[in-house]
Write a structure and sequence with these properties.
about 400 residues, Arc Repressor Mutant, subunit A, 15 helices, 17 strands, about 40% helix, iron, coproporphyrinogen oxidase activity, cytoplasm, 4 iron, 4 sulfur cluster binding
Length: about 400
C-alpha cells in the first residue's frame, strides 16, 4: 500500500530519489546486495525494468500529491547501473524530472564499474544532467581484485576517471579494505593509486563477509581467512592519514572529500534524516513527519519494495504497489536513529539532541578517547579517529 497523499512536509525537508538498478555482469563473492547476474531472475528484457521504474514513479507522484518537491539529489545505485544503455538511464532521470522536478543545483550520481563505461556513454550521461560518477575501484592490487571477484583490471580505473573528467563529471572512487589475503602494504598501494588519480571524493569500507555469500561459505570451509580486526583498524587509520595528507577531509566515518561541496549530498541526506523515495526492486523509502492532504498529522514511516525483479515488474504493470513491508516510526525511534546517523558525521551532534543526555556516559567516552574532549566541553559530540572505529559502541553508550 502506498502512503496516503501528503500535504507539505513539516518541517520542510530536502527530498531525494534513489533508483536501484539490480543488474550485474557477475555476482562478486562478497556481495549481499539485491542484485542479479544473467540467469538469476532478471527481467525478460532490461526495457521491462525501465518501464517498471517509470511506472513506480507515476505511483509515487499520486501518493505524494500536495508534497511534490524538486529532488535535490538523485542516486542510481545497484548492482551496476551502467550495465544499462545510457539511453535507459537518461529515460529514468527524465522520469524523475517529470515526476518531482530537479532542483537547479541537483546532484545526480550513478555508480559504475570501471569496465562498464566508455567515453561516449559518460558524455551522454553528463549531457543529460548527470553530475557525478562513483566508480567501484575497490583495490589496485590484482590478487585482491581476484579474491573479490572483480572483473576490471587496475588500469581500467585511470581510463574511466579520465573519460569522466573529459565529460565534466565529478568523480568518486570506492575502496574496500580487509579482503582475505590483503596486507597492510597492499592497502597502502591501493590508497596511493586512488589518490594519484585525484578524485573529488573517496569512500573506504571495511569488508564484511556475510554468511549467505560465496565468500561466507569459503570462510566456513576454511578456504580463506578473515583479516583480523586489529589489522582492519590499522588499515582505516592508514586511509585517514594518507587521505588527510593528500588534502581530503573526512565528513562521515567512511567518506572523505576535497571540499565540503564535494561531499556526496545524497548520502548526507540519509545521515541527516531527509526524505527520499526509493525506486526499483528492494529499494527503501523514507518520509518524515508531515501533514496529510486532509490536514491530519502523519508520522514518519519507511517502506521497502519486493526484492525479486519479476515480481516487482508484475506488480507495477498491474497497477498495484510494489511495496513489501512498511514500518511506522515513533518519536523514540527517530531520536535513536538520529544519534546513530548524526554521530557518524564529522560535524558531530549537540549534546542536548541526545534523548537522555548523561554526563557520566559522555565523560567515559571522552576518557576512553572515543569522543573529542574539547568539543564535548563546548556541547558537541564528535568522534575521534579511535571513536570512528568504535562508532557503534559509542551509540550504544549514549542511548
Amino acid at each position: 500500500m502506498l502512503p496516503a497523499p501528503a500535504g507539505p512536509a513539516t518541517p520542510m525537508r530536502d527530498f531525494g530519489v534513489y533508483v536501484h538498478v539490480p543488474f550485474c555482469a557477475v555476482r562478486c563473492g562478497y556481495c549481499d546486495f539485491n542484485t542479479y547476474a544473467p540467469g538469476e531472475g532478471e527481467f525478460s528484457s532490461r526495457d521491462d525494468y525501465v518501464g517498471a521504474a517509470l511506472g513506480e514513479m507515476a505511483q509515487a507522484r499520486a501518493a505524494m500529491a500536495g508534497d511534490l518537491r524538486p529532488a535535490r539529489t538523485v542516486f542510481f545505485g545497484g548492482g551496476t547501473p551502467t550495465m544499462l544503455d545510457p539511453a535507459a538511464l537518461v529515460a529514468m532521470l527524465e522520469g524523475v524530472r517529470d515526476t518531482w522536478g530537479l532542483a537547479p543545483d541537483a546532484e545526480v550520481t550513478t555508480e559504475a564499474n570501471p569496465d562498464s563505461v566508455t567515453a561516449a556513454s559518460l558524455s551522454t550521461l553528463a549531457s543529460a544532467g548527470f553530475t557525478r560518477v562513483s566508480f567501484g575501484m575497490q583495490s589496485a592490487v590484482p590478487h585482491v581484485l581476484a579474491t573479490l571477484e572483480r572483473t576490471h583490471r587496475p588500469q581500467n580505473v585511470a581510463l574511466a576517471v579520465r573519460w569522466a573528467r573529459e565529460a565534466g563529471l565529478a568523480v568518486s572512487l570506492d575502496l574496500i579494505y580487509g579482503t582475505p589475503g590483503e596486507s597492510l602494504d597492499d592497502w597502502r598501494a591501493s590508497l596511493d593509486a586512488a589518490i594519484a588519480l585525484e578524485p573529488d571524493h573517496v569512500s573506504a569500507y571495511a569488508l564484511v563477509i556475510e554468511p549467505g555469500t560465496r565468500m561466507g561459505r569459503q570462510l566456513r570451509a576454511g578456504q580463506i581467512e578473515a583479516v583480523d580486526l586489529d589489522t582492519q583498524a590499522d588499515m582505516y587509520e592508514a586511509a585517514d592519514a594518507r587521505l588527510r595528507d593528500a588534502g581530503y577531509s573526512w565528513y562521515e566515518v567512511s567518506n572523505w572529500a576535497r571540499t565540503p561541496e564535494q561531499a556526496c549530498r545524497h548520502n548526507v541526506a540519509y545521515w541527516t534524516s531527509q526524505d527520499w523515495w526509493g525506486i526499483g526492486p528492494g529499494a527503501h523509502s523514507y518520509l518524515g513527519p508531515r501533514i496529510g492532504a486532509d490536514g491530519a498529522e502523519r508520522g514518519a514511516e519507511r517502506w521497502w519494495n519486493v526484492k525479486l525483479p519479476r515480481v516487482y515488474a508484475a506488480r507495477v504493470a498491474a497497477g498495484t504497489s510494489p511495496e513489501a513491508e512498511r514500518e511506522p516510526l515513533t518519536a523514540a525511534d527517530l531520536a535513536l536513529e538520529s544519534v546513530m546517523l548524526r554521530l557518524r558525521l564529522a560535524q558531530g551532534m549537540p549534546v542536548m539532541d541526545l534523548p537522555d543526555p548523561r554526563a557520566e556516559a559522555i565523560a567515559a567516552l571522552v576518557g576512553d578517547g572515543v569522543l573529542d574532549g574539547r568539543a564535548a566541553l563546548s556541547g558537541t559530540l564528535r568522534l575521534t579517529v579511535r571513536g570512528r572505529l568504535l562508532a557503534d559502541a559509542a551509540v550504544r553508550a549514549l542511548t
